[in-house]
Amino acid sequence: MITGKTKLLGLIGDPVKHTLSPYMHNAAFESLNLDYVYVPFHVKKNELKAAIKGASSLEIKGLNVTIPHKTEVMKYLDVLDGTAELIGAVNTIKFDEKIKGYNTDGLGAVRAIEETSTVRGKKIVILGAGGASRAISFQIILSGAGRVIIANRTLEKGFLLKKNLVEKLDADVEAIDIGEKLNDELKDADILINTTPIGMYPNIHQKPLVTSEMMHENLIVNDIIYNPLHTGILREAIKANAKTVTGVKMLIYQGIESFKIWTGVEPSVDVFNEALVKVLK
User: Fold this and answer.
1) For residue 197, is the peptide bond before it cis, meaning its omega torsion is within 30 degrees of 0?
2) Given 70, 94, 100, 249, the catalytic residue
3) Taking the CA atoms of the chain, what radius of gyration do you get in angstroms?
4) Is 70 an annotated catalytic residue?
């Protein structure tokens, strides 16, 4: 029951109707008997500054941030966590004496993959060079990845991300386009991560950028899309006898990291997973 003592957390974005985060967090609050509630808030771009000020005034304890606000919101925060500052984007805010921004997206992806294999020393190919790719590529390098290949249809965008990674982390990074060179790089790759929206609902029949013929059975394939649960690229991975990591895992682990920032408590992976599976079904 919500009372005057209940602590409020939430999500801001445009749109937010599709979000699954309230299912995860509210299920975890109930299981841990924590007096919190998590609510999505639809915030348009021109209302972002007012939303952050209003959240602080209303004593909201924390917020997740989704598109299109992850970069713009940094202007209205007092301090940034080191990883968020490196990435240049925020997906989690904690309201305390100061308003602090964090980024748990990359850590969520790494924890999801590391259920299957460590990223340390591995050759990792990342499809896409947008915001999700940026967060994940920074975090996997911080987590000890060996060589990172950014494969993007627009080569200039891939080169810009490579430049940022090399300048800030002195990493072994290459940028390539989606073509024959991608085939060559995949031959000895350890991990493949799709950060593009190809295959996301409702476009579930889009042809994936990588097919089973380009994969090998020792490859780990992660798609950060969680709807549908089994995307085109994951179905191709199964054909190649490669290991698969669904997007639900990243969603769970980035949510767990946010939960810990706000409450100081680590929720159960199983509780988050059960809540998501129930709603996705």
Assistant:
1) no
2) 70
3) 19
4) yes
